[in-house]
Design a protein that fits this description.
The protein contains three helices and seven strands; from the N terminus they run E-E-E-E-H-H-H-E-E-E. With 131 residues, it is α+β, with helices and mostly antiparallel strands. 8% of the residues are buried. The protein binds zinc ion (ZN) (2 copies).
Length: 131
C-alpha cells in the first residue's frame, strides 16, 4: 500500500502524509525536510548568495576608486584655477571656487587664507595654477 503523498504548505514539496509533523516555529504541519530545518538552511544560503552578488562588479577594487578620485581632483585643479594676475601689477587676484567672490590675494604674505565672503579655505598658490 502506497503512502498518501501531500504537498507541504511550507516548501511545496510532496511528502508522505504520515511523516508530517507540527513544527513549533512554522506553527503548522510540515514535511520532514522542513521539520529538520533543511528548508530554512537552504533559504539562508540563497539570501547570502544574493548579498554577495549585489557587491561592486568584479575587478573594481579600492585602488581603482583611489585613482578615479585622484584624476578627478587633479582635473578640477587645472580647469578652475582660482588665481589670476591683475594686469599691469604684481598683484594677484583670487576668485573663490565656492562662491565666485573675487578678491585681492597677497602671494608673499599668503593672505587672506580664507575667502572674505564665504570663509572657505583659499587653495595654495603655486606657479602651476597662476594664470
Ligand atoms: Zn516542506
Ligand atoms: Zn568664497
Amino acid at each position: 500500500m502506497n503512502p498518501i503523498k501531500v504537498p507541504c504548505r511550507e516548501c511545496g514539496m510532496e511528502a508522505p502524509a504520515d511523516q508530517f509533523r507540527l513544527h513549533y516555529k512554522y506553527k503548522k504541519m510540515v514535511c520532514p525536510t522542513c521539520f529538520s530545518g533543511r528548508t530554512e538552511a537552504k533559504r539562508q544560503k540563497e539570501q547570502e548568495e544574493k548579498v554577495i552578488k549585489k557587491d561592486k562588479p568584479a575587478g573594481w577594487d579600492a585602488e581603482d576608486d583611489y585613482l578615479e578620485k585622484m584624476s578627478r581632483s587633479r582635473r578640477q585643479e587645472i580647469e578652475v584655477s582660482p588665481f589670476s594676475r591683475i594686469p599691469g601689477t604684481h598683484q594677484v587676484q583670487c576668485k573663490c571656487v565656492h562662491c565666485k567672490f573675487t578678491f585681492k590675494y597677497d602671494p608673499f604674505k599668503k593672505t587672506p587664507r580664507t575667502c572674505p565672503y564665504c570663509n572657505q579655505d583659499v587653495p595654495r598658490l603655486t606657479t602651476f595654477n597662476l594664470l
